């Protein structure tokens, strides 16, 4: 495939209000709910980039570094930062926002890999990643470095 697509064309931002059905007994977001939102956001970013259906192939290590409280707004943001022949790597960040004060805080980050599918459901080539602006190059480089650092920490933590 000689086609290219930009990091910016994949950018996806979703918002979700944390309601009681998605909370634990402390009134905080269930981890599975947050992972669900992240998977959807990442898939949309992958589909926008590839102009194809994509399926989740993997998700890297996830640390929940701050809770999302009931009534807060979760902001889920993703973009493609790397490609393989039939796969796209997507960084997904989640922030919590207090809608009354506009204060936000980072809650988690993870890196997903999605595989593009053709009409018969078989893996199909994706465009090459292009980062025409300095902002896009910085986002790509930060995601590549962040994924590498996250993997290094997991290896160190579990003494692999």
TrEMBL record:
Residues 8-120 form the HotDog ACOT-type domain. SUPFAM superfamilies: Thioesterase/thiol ester dehydrase-isomerase (SSF54637). Keywords: Hydrolase. One of its GO terms (molecular function) is long-chain fatty acyl-CoA hydrolase activity. GO terms for biological process: acyl-CoA metabolic process; fatty acid catabolic process. InterPro entries: Cytosol_ACT, HOTDOG_ACOT, HotDog_dom_sf, Thioestr_dom. Residues 134-144 have a biased composition (Basic and acidic residues). Residues 120-144 are annotated as: Disordered. This is Thioesterase superfamily protein. It comes from Halorubrum hochstenium ATCC 700873.
